[in-house]
């Protein structure tokens, strides 16, 4: 494998813009360079024609998980709320979130995944002991049970959008990419972004101690990315 993780934010073909075309065969090409991938793609792309999920499966990708937004402000949630939203209909709710799907190939146990944890809740056993045990758990310990010092981070995160500072019209927040990279790429590993836009993935990869390979069709975006990387 040439890369440890792919971060892909492909054109969805949602608009008539010339760059907004789904590149045929890119999922098969991606499968030849890495066995793990985060991909930004709306649920609609899977549930409605052209049913992109079938293309993932045909290229050997298996869905591991998805990150979804929620109306929750807890620090340990992974939500990304867009500043203005991107809904194209006036009779639907304003869409201010993006779904990020995680894919892998081969054995899950062979795929790097460093699950982040957050501070847990410790309850003295004595407190628990005063309560009656819920019938569905049975008797776990003689004096009740305690939570550990950490627990898994939840699948929703709230990060600031790149609104106001973005150098690309669909730029993803570096803070969100940082989380995706730290989860899916080993320290010092290589992240490949085949639709790199602003180069945000490289900024996040560098912060996470990883290397990055960027591919971008638009030369002007490449020039702006290079400048951002050089000055950040
Ligand atoms: C959704 S944007 C990516 C934005 C990026 N994630 C960021 O944070 O800035 C998709 C990018 O893919 C580029 N693109 C479109 N078709 C491409 C292709 N066939 N190969 C490489 N890049 C392509 C577009 O020019 C556009 O910049």
What does this structure look like?
The protein is α/β, with parallel strands linked by helices and 232 residues long. It has two domains: 5-116 and 153-231, Vaccinia Virus protein VP39 (Rossmann fold), CATH 3.40.50.150; 117-152, no CATH class. Helices cover 23% and strands 15% of the residues. The chain has seven helices and eight strands. A six-stranded mixed β-sheet has the order 3-4-2-1-7-8, covered by helices on one side. Strands 5-6 form a two-stranded antiparallel sheet. Residues 69-79 and 126-130 have low confidence and may be disordered. It comes from Paractinoplanes rishiriensis.
Topology of this protein?
Elements: E1 5-8, H1 26-31, E2 36-40, H2 44-47, H3 52-58, E3 62-67, E4 100-104, E5 117-119, H4 125-129, E6 150-152, H5 174-184, E7 190-193, H6 200-207, E8 211-214, H7 219-231
Parallel strand pairs: 1-2, 1-7, 7-8
Antiparallel strand pairs: 2-4, 3-4, 5-6
Helix pairs in contact: 5-6
In short:
Helices cover 23% and strands 15% of the residues.
**How confident overall, as mean pLDDT?**
82
Radius of gyration, CA atoms, in whole angstroms: 20 Å
CATH superfamily of the largest domain: Vaccinia Virus protein VP39
CATH class of the largest domain: Alpha Beta
Structural class: alpha/beta
Q: How many domains make up the 3D coordinates?
A: 2
Distance between the termini: 29 Å
Hetero groups in this structure are:
S-adenosylmethionine
Approximate helicity band:
10-25%
The strand count comes to 8
């Amino acid at each position: 494998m040439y890369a440890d993780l792919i971060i892909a934010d492909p054109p969805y073909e949602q608009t008539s813009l010339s760059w907004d075309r789904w590149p045929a065969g890119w999922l098969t090409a991606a499968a030849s360079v890495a066995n793990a991938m985060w991909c930004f793609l709306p649920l609609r792309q899977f549930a409605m024609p052209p049913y992109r999920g079938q293309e993932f499966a045909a290229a050997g990708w298996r869905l591991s998980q998805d990150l979804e937004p929620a109306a929750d402000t807890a620090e340990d949630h992974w939500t990304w709320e867009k500043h203005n939203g991107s809904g194209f209909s006036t009779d639907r709710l304003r869409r201010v979130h993006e779904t990020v799907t995680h894919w892998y190939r081969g054995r899950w146990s062979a795929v790097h995944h460093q699950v982040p944890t957050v501070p847990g809740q410790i309850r003295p056993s004595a407190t628990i002991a005063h309560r009656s045990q819920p019938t569905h758990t049975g008797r776990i310990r003689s004096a009740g049970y305690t939570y550990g010092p950490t627990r898994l981070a939840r699948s929703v995160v709230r990060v600031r959008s790149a609104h106001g500072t973005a150098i690309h019209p669909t730029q993803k927040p570096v803070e969100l990419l940082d989380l995706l990279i730290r989860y899916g790429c080993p320290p010092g590993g290589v992240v490949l972004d085949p639709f790199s836009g602003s180069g945000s993935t490289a900024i996040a990869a560098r912060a996470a101690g990883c290397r990055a390979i960027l591919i971008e069709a638009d030369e002007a975006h490449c020039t702006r990315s290079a400048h951002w990387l050089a000055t950040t």
